[in-house]
Amino acid sequence: MFESILITIATAATPLLIASIGELVVERSGVLNLGVEGMMVMGAVTGFGVALATGSPWLGVLAAVLVGALFSLLFGFLTLTLVTNQVATGLALTLLGLGLSGMIGESFVGLPGVKMSYLYIPYLTDIPYVGKLLFGQDPLFYVSILLTAGVAWFLFRSRAGLTLRSIGDNHTSAHALGINVIGIRYLAVMFGGACAGLAGAYLSLVYTPQWIENMTAGRGWIALALVVFASWRPWRVLAGAYLFGAVSIGQLHAQALGIGVPSQLLSSLPYLATIVVLVLISRNRRLTMVNTPASLGRPFVPDR
Amino acid sequence: MRALDGSETANLLEVRGLTKIFGTLKACDAIDLTIAKGEIHALLGENGAGKSTLVKMLFGSLEPHSGEISWNGQPVRIASPHAAKKLGIGMVFQHFSLFEALTAAENIALSLNEDTPISTIAAKAKALSYSYGLPLDPYSLVGDLSVGERQRIEIIRCLLQTPELIILDEPTSVLTPQEADKLFETLERLRSEGKSILYISHRLEEVKRMCDRATVLRHGKVVGHCDPRKETAASLARMMVGNEVKPVVRPPSEGIEKAASLLEVRGLSRKPATPFSIPLRDIKLDVRAGEVIGIAGVAGNGQGEFFEAVSGEALQDDGATVRIRGKDAGRLSISGRRLLGAAFVPEERLGHGAAPRMRLSENLLLSRHTTDRKAFLGPAGLVQSGAVKAASQRIVEEMDVRKSAVDPEAAALSGGNLQKFIIGRELDRQPAVMVVNQPTWGVDAGAAAHIRQALIELARSGSAVLVISQDLDELFEISDAIAVMHNGELSKPLPRAEATFEKIGLLMGGAEPGHVEPALEVA
Known about the structure:
The structure holds two protein chains of two kinds.
Chain A: H1 2-28, H2 36-54, H3 57-81, H4 86-104, H5 131-135, H6 139-157, H7 159-169, H8 171-176, H9 181-207, H10 219-229, H11 234-256, H12 263-282, H13 285-291
Helix pairs in contact in A: 1-6, 1-9, 1-10, 1-11, 2-3, 2-4, 2-9, 2-10, 3-4, 3-9, 6-7, 6-11, 10-11, 10-12, 11-12
Chain B: E1 11-22, E2 25-36, E3 40-44, H1 51-58, E4 66-71, E5 74-76, H2 81-87, E6 89-92, H3 104-110, H4 118-131, H5 147-160, E7 165-169, H6 177-192, E8 196-200, H7 204-210, E9 213-218, E10 221-226, H8 233-241, E11 261-270, E12 280-288, E13 292-296, H9 303-311, E14 322-324, E15 327-328, H10 334-339, E16 342-345, H11 360-368, H12 373-376, H13 385-399, H14 415-427, E17 433-437, H15 445-460, E18 464-468, H16 472-478, E19 481-486, E20 489-490, E21 494-495, H17 501-508, H18 519-522
Parallel strand pairs in B: 3-8, 3-9, 6-7, 7-8, 13-18, 13-19, 16-17, 17-18
Antiparallel strand pairs in B: 1-2, 1-4, 4-5, 9-10, 11-12, 11-14, 14-15, 19-20, 19-21
Helix pairs in contact in B: 3-4, 3-5, 4-5, 11-13, 13-14, 14-15
């Protein structure tokens, strides 16, 4: 019982974690992409469709990652090359993604999807209490954990990560040092898009293997909120994703038990928690300075 | 000149006809410049003369419209700072190109382009910084450091790249005389190793002392090459400005001893605001009507913290620790202190002294709408924009602020002109107490003389003026007495007649008995 609750929490948390980790890298480079929801839902519909056509969930995942990255490339071209407003462009990307995915997915509605199989390692998975939790989940769960560790290492241990953070802190200085600000931001934005696409594929291939219009249901926004909640730190994103995963699962159990907490209140908790965190970190100048990418959302035009 | 003695020309860098145009402005107009191997070459010019533009083209951050650059006799195109570094050009920026959220070591690592571990870089940087007398804690966060300490990082960062040509933009403006001497020793050592240095400075004395040749720019054109050792400071200044720079006149102060103290600081202490900042320790100071008191000190010894405490950016627990015109002000806000007749000019011009993207008149209104409510605000608190614009225009004329539009954004002005406006904005109120932090940092000779003269005149008209500066020449020029801040403590003010560079320099290094050596200098 306890193990199965933990597994459902992990399943709820994984798409949030993957999308947030991608957006974290984007924001650490100083770009604010509010189009996570749109890229995610595009990933979901692509993953579903390709898996259905080929019968292979892995090809679905691959296609979703590519589409997510391509979709973010559109955002990158508009905001980085044409220097449009990042907030407006991100919102437009979300609207476009929701509409486009609805159109593409119209014929998928009601079809049974392809479900990604769970990991099974003889003996290990059969260990009582923890076997299924540690060794019997879907493969993307392990990907999400590796992704978190990888991004944490990249950002704070590697020279390339230092360069990325420096651009997020002050793009003018970075340019003066000869760092290719726009190029690195393109890469970061595409990484974010690929992650959002992957998170979308998780929804339509693992979480509920079917296609429903708007099936991301605001998870992209929660992912955005999580990045701030975690004050732009990968391991805190993981903690936050599991916290919100637990809240959403707890909400289901609470309803089943007939506990009278309005579900709307519970589902607004991520946003409330984000506001509380923003208040807390903004009280400490030093914390804000160290963690918040100072040039987040600011347009960059190199003078030449 | 070293380049002329042999058959082979030993020119490291040759620039022919380099031109850069911004819109209609020729920022650099057919500049010729040669730098020989092993020479220290001075680049002189007022703010806006095109020095920064020229240097940026040499460092690859700006692309010239026309002209040639050759390096070691070979024509080159410097397409990016990276290319410049590859050739062997290193740069110490005037407007720091540092990342506040990163540590000193990380900042240095970013410009090195190799995969040396940060800890190795930190150790190297620390060793180098101590050997050059510019102590640096590589793990401190740049955001917590003062302007002077940030410049040390820039210098160390450049030296670690072992460049052939080092471009230094105003490197000594934040150093003590002893530290500057150390830097000159370093530069001379580098010269003897065959490295070349392009040295940009406003301090004509040090140019005369150290540089082999000088190129003088005015309005984007080269107006002369000379041997600075054969010139006088006055003749160099004349070449830069195009006419005589009026020397600052300090009329004798009479009867100051009996004058009332308009700004009193009593037992002012402050805990460090951030883990890296300096605590203030029991500061006592009087500034009387009619006098200018200068506060000297190496950057980062508590001057910024002291300014914040006096101006009201940081409130005190006890209102009596800061008294303005006989009233307790320690618990008052900035506006409250302004209403008592005080005026404050902070160190940073953009972002602190003025809102960069707002017009001059808007900046004027922002700082004075409380104190000049009657003049600037009409019935129901509506802004009288005519009155604000007229006042703005008055300040512009009074301080000779040069600008390109009628009412430009603050960020569009050059540093010197914006500083003249900000100082003028406060002087226009005829404040009884004026506190200025770094009045002429990065400001050209003409503008600096103007600002200094204005501060002296304000004092002689019966106000109390307190000037915090790292520029000792400036303090000796305008102060009636000089106190030194070291490690959060303030020495007793030395009357101008008793103060010498030697004495003040020793105090800046912490020589006064009772001072605790900061941990940095022990290590």
